[in-house]
Amino acid sequence: MTLNRDFLTAVVFLLLTVGMYVATYSLPEPMFNQLASWTWPRTILVPLGLLSVVMLIQSQKSDQPAATLGGFLAWAKENVNPFLCFGLFFLFLLTLPTLGMLLGGLAYVFLTLCVLGGWQPRQMAVHAGISIVFVTGMWAIFSFALGVVLPEGTILRVY
Amino acid sequence: MFENLALAIPELFTLTNMMLMMVGTTAGLLAGAIPGFTIAMAVVLVLPFTFTMTPVQGLATMIAVYVGGLSGGLMSGILTGIPGTPSSVATTFDGYPLARSGKPGLALGIGVWSSFFGGVFASIVLMLVAPQLARIGLEFQPVDYFSLVIFALTVTASLAGDQMVKGLMAGLVGLLVATVGSDVVFGQPRFTFGFDAMEQGFAFLPVLVGIFAFGRLLGDVKNREKAHQPLGGETHVVHIDYLGAMREVLRRWGNLLRSSAIGVFVGVLPAAGSTISNILAYDQAKKTSKEHEQFGKGAIDGIIAPEAANNATAGGALIVMMALGLPGDIMTAIMLGALLIHDVIPSPSFISDEPKIAYAIFLAFFVANFMMLALQSVTLRGFVLITRVKLYMLSAVILFYCAVGMFALNNVAWDMWTLFFFGIVGFFMRALGFPVVPLVLGVVLGRIAEARLSQVFARSDDIGVFLSRPWSLFFLLLACFSIVFPLYQKHRGTAPWTRFYVPILLVVMAWPVFQMPGSIRPVLAIGMVIGGLALAVINIKRGSAPQATE
Question: Shortest CB distance from A40 goes to which of B48, B179, B227?
Answer without folding.
Answer: B179
